[in-house]
UniProtKB/TrEMBL annotation:
GO cellular component, one term: cytosol
Hydrolase in keyword set: yes
Pathway membership, UniProt: Quinol/quinone metabolism; menaquinone biosynthesis
Catalytic activity: futalosine + H2O = dehypoxanthine futalosine + hypoxanthine
An annotated GO BP: menaquinone biosynthetic process
One term of GO molecular function: adenosylhomocysteine nucleosidase activity
Protein name: Futalosine hydrolase
Organism (species): Paenibacillus paeoniae
UniProt KW keywords: Glycosidase, Hydrolase, Menaquinone biosynthesis
Job description of the protein: Catalyzes the hydrolysis of futalosine (FL) to dehypoxanthine futalosine (DHFL) and hypoxanthine, a step in the biosynthesis of menaquinone (MK, vitamin K2).
EC code: 3.2.2.26
Root EC class: hydrolase
Domain of life the protein comes from: Bacteria
Length: 228
């Protein structure tokens, strides 16, 4: 992690939470040495529970430091919406497997009456991030991103999850966890995925992790010059 700010600086500071170290390194490669001072980048672990705990702990010990929390990493892309090497920014982060299976189908936590499975991204920040990408001639789809504890591995689950969240373009395993932690600290959040594989029948040999990490690096290269 780059140094944490402990002062009451008015400068914009952004916390970026990846799952694994390879993603963190890609983000750091994208950020120039100068701009790294405005970003802290941590690898919080795989899955919503690990990143929620890690992010919440960090935010509790750095109150007033951050303006935005970004969940970032590689992810699965829904065919026809986001292909390998493409970028997806979340307009909403949806916990897609939080609920109950029933003989008649899946019931979300919302339908069960236990809360909400959706957290909206901060749209002002999204517009700023999209403008940075556009200035760098990078394209990005703004769409719902699903968070799942088990990556989709069959056509049937892909169809179910697409039906659950029409328009979803990507799937990862951390966004909702990061967003929950940010929300509990009253902070804006969003999620960026660089697509490494198609959401559908599992075929690890078809994952293009290198391409996705390069796309992630390029995205943060574009974010590096964001104004304070
Ligand atoms: O093996 C490697 O070198 C390597 C390098 C970077 C990342 C990985 C991961 O396996 C990261 C796991 C991470 O990726 C997200 N992810 C990617 N595809 C999907 C998907 O189809 N469905 C859900 N999640 C996906 C996820 O956020 C994991 O945490 C390996």
């Amino acid at each position: 992690m780059s140094q944490l700010l402990t002062s009451d600086s008015m400068e914009t500071r952004i916390l970026v939470v990846t799952a694994v170290e390879a993603e963190r390194e890609a983000v750091l490669r994208g950020l120039s040495a100068a701009s790294t001072a405005r970003f802290d980048v941590i690898a919080g672990g795989v899955g919503p529970a690990a990143v929620a705990a890690r992010t919440a702990t960090l935010l509790a010990s750095s109150k007033g430091t951050y303006n935005l929390v970004v969940s970032a990493g590689i992810g699965g892309g829904f065919p026809g919406r986001a292909g390998i090497g493409e970028l997806v920014l979340a307009d909403v982060m949806v916990s897609a497997d939080l609920g109950a299976e029933t003989p008649d189908g899946f019931l979300s936590v919302d339908e069960l009456g236990f809360g909400s499975s959706r957290i909206s991204s901060d749209m002002e920040w999204n517009q700023r991030l999209l403008a940075q990408l556009s200035n760098a001639a990078l394209t990005c789809t703004l769409a719902p991103i699903l968070t799942v504890s088990s990556a989709t591995g069959t056509a049937a689950t892909a169809k179910l999850r697409e039906r659950l969240v029409p328009g979803a373009a990507a799937e990862g395993m951390e966004g909702f966890g990061v967003a929950i932690a940010a929300a509990q600290h009253g902070l804006a959040a969003t999620e960026l995925r660089a697509i490494s594989n198609a959401v559908g029948p599992r075929d690890r040999s078809a994952w293009r992790i290198g391409e996705a990490l390069k796309a992630l690096e390029n995205a943060f290269g574009a974010f590096a010059s964001i104004t304070p």
